[in-house]
Amino acid sequence: MSDTLAPTLPGGTAPPPEPVFYVAGEHHPQNGTLLGFWVYLMSDCLIFACLFATYGVLGRSYAAGPSGADLFDLPLVAVNTSLLLLSSITYGFAMLEMRRNRIGATQLWLAVTGILGLGFLSLELYEFAHLIHQGAGPQRSAFLSSFFTLVGTHGLHVTFGIVWLVTMMIQVQMHGLIPENRRRLMCLSMFWHFLDLIWVGVFTFVYLMGVLP
């Protein structure tokens, strides 16, 4: 028995015992981040499903204004689509280099992905500016309101993806390919490929079907 007396609180009462933790080690569940991110992507999928449904209802409400066949520049949209799809491939190259633990090559492919994403956004902003200059802004008809909302929401997601990508490049440069950065790059990979998948739907449902009579 120890010769020292346990400290007492005023009034002669003993202090509460120290808490005992029976679970030692890491409390973060394995693959918990990826599972949580999948849940987020499913919720984002619901948002885009609502926007697609809205466009499906309002896509022919021209209000005596121009239709998609009058406005859409398919060659420009095809180039834009190619940029985004190519960025998905370059991000895949970045993930392959990450698995090989090559920081420089990973950073290079991430930078190429970001440049392609910026090119996609630039063409999309050019398209929006051109439509508004023609008097086909979102307030012109229900068709244009739903079009700008759907395509603009996707563009906003791409913008957030580029900001996230630049942040991850800084993190990799500062801390290397530590497990935390690998996990975050995996989440960004899922997000980026998800945006590509959504854009394929936009290109088919909005642009290709929009030029049909």
UniProtKB/TrEMBL annotation:
Keyword entries, A-Z: Cell membrane, Electron transport, Membrane, Oxidoreductase, Transmembrane, Transmembrane helix, Transport
Biological process according to GO: aerobic electron transport chain
Subcellular location(s) per record: Cell membrane
Coiled-coil residue spans: none
Superkingdom of origin: Bacteria
Matching InterPro entries: Cyt_c/ubiquinol_Oxase_su3, Cyt_c_oxidase-like_su3, Cyt_c_oxidase_su3-like_sf, Cyt_c_oxidase_su3_a-hlx, Cyt_c_ubiqinol_oxidase_su3, Ubiquinol_oxase_su3_dom
Cited PROSITE patterns: COX3
One of the Pfam families matching this protein, by short name: COX3
GO molecular function, one term: cytochrome bo3 ubiquinol oxidase activity
All copies of domain Heme-copper oxidase subunit III family profile, residue ranges: 30-211
Membrane-spanning parts: 37-57, 77-96, 108-126, 146-170, 191-212
CC per GO annotation: plasma membrane
Membrane topology: Multi-pass membrane protein
Protein family according to the UniProt entry: Belongs to the cytochrome c oxidase subunit 3 family.
Function: Cytochrome bo(3) ubiquinol terminal oxidase is the component of the aerobic respiratory chain of E.coli that predominates when cells are grown at high aeration. Has proton pump activity across the membrane in addition to electron transfer, pumping 2 protons/electron.
Subunit structure: Heterooctamer of two A chains, two B chains, two C chains and two D chains.
This protein's name: Cytochrome bo(3) ubiquinol oxidase subunit 3
Source organism of this protein record: Achromobacter kerstersii
Gene, per the UniProt record: cyoC_2
